[in-house]
From TrEMBL:
It comes from the Bacteria. Pfam families: ABC_tran. Keywords: ATP-binding, Nucleotide-binding, Transport. Residues 1-221 form the ABC transporter domain. This is ABC transporter, ATP-binding protein. The keyword Transport applies. Gene3D superfamilies: P-loop containing nucleotide triphosphate hydrolases. The keyword ATP-binding applies. Belongs to the ABC transporter superfamily. One of its GO terms (molecular function) is ATP binding.
């Protein structure tokens, strides 16, 4: 993986996509090999250690946010060097207007719901907030674990467009697992297919642009 890559990862159920992502994130241990991040081999490092450079958005919108806290409080938690004092005083520290500026481009009305507990948001609003929180610190690696799979088609499209906008604007190196062939083809500069724990296809540039859904689906049978 190169700096600035936006990689879509596809494959059959049980092919090893989630295992790959979980191994990179540290929630699964690797038996061998190395995982190099910021010139450090992190293969033996904990999830919390890796989180200094990695962020992750999960399939379940509830996993990336704290439901009992407000939208503003969740954003405070996502900022680096946060502590309990800043949670209590975030409004008095002039954060309110900054949070509104951050949320308005999402076009989901969240800038007017800063005091709302996150558990009362829709799935799409909550996932958009999760995405924003995961990218606030400009991570060296962003992991997207089927992050639109639980959303309805329109909301899924909106969150994917938002994802593409943020990733490209911030030049974030990103790996995204998806079951949607259309998303794998449309987004990112590189596409990887995983089968039986092995990478069987790795295309980028014009080779990726020239692929179509029918051809890609046909490769699952090879």
């Amino acid at each position: 993986m190169y700096d600035g890559d936006f990689i879509s990862v596809i494959g059959n159920n049980g092919a090893g996509k989630s295992t790959l992502l979980n191994t990179i994130a540290g929630t699964l241990s690797a038996d061998a090999g190395s995982i190099n991040l910021e010139n450090k081999n992190v293969i033996k490092k904990s999830v919390s250690y890796r989180s200094r450079w990695m962020s992750r958005v999960f399939q379940d919108p509830k996993m990336g946010t704290a439901g009992e806290l407000s939208v503003a409080e969740n954003l405070v938690l996502a900022q680096s060097h946060v502590n309990t004092t800043s949670l209590k005083w975030y409004n008095k520290k002039g954060q309110w207007e900054k949070f509104q500026e951050l949320l308005k481009p999402l076009d989901m009305g969240l800038e007017d719901r800063l005091k709302t507990q996150v558990k009362y948001l829709s799935g799409g609003q909550r996932q958009a907030l999760s995405l924003l929180m995961a990218t606030l610190s400009k991570p060296k690696l962003l992991l997207l674990d089927e992050h639109t799979a639980a959303l309805d088609p329109k909301t899924s499209r909106d969150v994917m467009n938002l994802t593409d906008e943020i990733v490209n604007r911030e030049k974030l190196t990103t790996m995204m697992i998806t079951h949607k062939m259309s998303d794998a083809l449309k987004y990112g500069n590189r596409l990887i297919m995983v089968q039986d724990g092995q990478i069987t296809l790795d295309v980028s540039g014009k080779d990726k642009q020239n692929l179509d859904s029918e051809e890609l689906v046909g490769m699952f049978d090879n």
